[in-house]
Amino acid sequence: MAACWLWSAQAAAQDRSKPVQSEDVVRVNTALVQTDVMVLDKGGGFVNGLSRDQFVLKIDGKPREISFFEQVRAGSRNEEAQLAAARGSVNDPRRPTSGGALPLDRGRTIFFFADDLHLSASSVNQTRTLLSHFIDREMGQNDEAVIASTSGQIGFLQQLTDNKRVLLAAVERLKPRPSISASLERPPMTEYQALKIDQNDDDVFGFFVDAVLRDNPGISRATAEEMVHSRASQLLREAASITTNTLATIESLIRSSREIPGRKILFLISDGFFLDNRNSDALDRLRRISSSAAAAGTVIYSIDARGLTAGMNDVTTESAFDTTGRLQRGAAGEVAASQDGLNALAVDTGGRAFFNSNALSAAVTTALKETSTYYLLAWRPENDDQRNQKPGRVDVSVIGRPELVIRFRRRVGEFGSSESASRQSKPAQPNRKESSELLSDALRAKYPLSALPVSLTLNYVDVPQYGSSLTVSLKVVTDSLQYEGAADSRFANLDIAGAIFDIQGKPASTFSKRLTIRAAAGGATAARQSVSYNHFAALKSGLYQVRVAALDEKQARSGSAVQWIEIPDLGSKVLTLSSLIVGEKKAETEVQPNDVASNEAGAALSPLRQVSLNIDHRFMRSSQLRFLTIIYNAAAGTSASSKATVTVDANSKGAAPAPDLAVQVQVFRDNEPVITTPVHKIETEGATDRTRIPYAADLLLDNLQSGRYVLQVTVIDRLKKASASQKYDFQVE
Length: 733
What we know:
This protein is α+β, with helices and mostly antiparallel strands. The protein is about 25% helix and about 30% strand. It has 15 helices and 32 strands. Strands 21, 22, 23, 24, 26 and 30 form a six-stranded antiparallel beta sheet that branches. Strands 25, 27, 28, 29, 31 and 32 form a six-stranded mixed beta sheet that branches. Strands 6-5-7-8-9 form a five-stranded parallel beta sheet, with helices on both faces. The protein is globular, with a radius of gyration of 30 Å. The two termini are about 30 Å apart.
């Protein structure tokens, strides 16, 4: 089997340990509270070079001393450390405690919330266009995004991911969802008209009372007025329920994002909603969302999906016919009222609102540019109320610069003191739950857990001996396990589990196992320890999510990892590549660099057996990255005389016209190519199976700086005039 060179070494040593470098953890419990501040000039550009002394900070109107001040670049490798410092913690408690370095080149975390219960059909189409534009053109190499909705119609795909295929599939699920049920009563009444009736607007109320009297001769005016009030109240109760659902879903999304380190951006896309204080607690919910956003480090940017509009109704909305002009007078201020909630959420969290513009994608671009750099300010609470994180109003200004636009969080809540964060990061106490429950919780966790470091890699291949197969390979760092038993036979138990889900969230394959980890002989403690495990699954074509988790039952510490993979349909005869199966060749391995392009198993695997599968996607600069991919559905060659396609018999030993394939290898950092090889021909002479053509090569890493990269291998079929690519993200240390 052409991929055995990587799997066999791992399968044979699934319970073998490797040493890990430990790190002393220093925890400093303080009570600093922080806010991020964006300072922009009139043109919208960030104002660089401001100092601490130029800022004035007030909490509930009282001047406060700025205890911490720094300029931060969002998504940079230093942002998380700077945020931790502003909390007064040398070591961020939400960091993994495995001793591993912080991820380099960490990208932005972006949430798109489509308020589909307040989006018209045309606005849904506008939203889909905006989202597709971001995914195709704006999303960076290391960015992660999630597309969520009020109704939950996106379902299983409503998850944070860097996989563009998953995000595009989520966009496809976004459909118009009528919220308020259509009424058979005439004339039709809108939510804003019902709100005006509830507020005793004479024009709107009089119009509907007169309409009831016309349609019901003989009833008194008092009866007609009661009927109109009853109808308006019923509509407002239904609308208030929908608005409450919207705000509750936003708050839940923001609260859950506290588990994600760093600053987050949330785009709230809606046609707006009304703040009905009599029938809902909307204002209180807005304040809670602002406090939750402060605690989670989330900035909200609101986008009115209606774009440039003169009124609320579009051609798909039935409206009452009014020759008296009373409804038109009553509708004054309707659009602005529907935008009040959107504006409040944006302003109070340090963002801004984009209204009355058809350039929705430009709004996203502007917001991402604005949030790319900011000033981080922190202060020390002076009383118990502030230490207990009671919400307070924040005001920030720059001395002598009234022309500057300053955006900041206007409310702080339980906002990330190191003590609060450390409480969240502490492992659960042992024996509170059964191990099966703890492992199941880790497997279902909304975001990956890091108390126990877990790595995951997925590899898909199709080979004659086994057919189509997905290999799930997980690696767990075990240096922190608590061993038990006699000195000469110390051991620790590690529970692992995994599940493969299809695009609907239905399980396609599962596994669970208890591994027994033996301590080093003689009781010696190794510098680095890890254990690996492989699970094989035969799957149909489609998009799948793989979740794995590990549990140290003794200490009730768990970790998890999540990845997506698309299994291709080889029956479509489209040029396709298997996964990039990647291993690391250490510097001490005496093997010459090799560029293999042969279909013969012996020739292809000979130099590759000396490396093993790299599961954690981390490489030393002194090593070499070696990859293998298999090319499927390449076009067969043609005869020189007739130019007709030659059908190749896989059992024939005779030579057949070879495919005409070329390959290019590129390495990207922050979407910019740092390595690009010339396009060169793949030699396939002498191969008999044209349906599966392996290609392998080495990549030297010594010229790459430490950071995150993406390897892209592109194969070109010159006969089919088609190409196929596969990508592999990795980190150089």
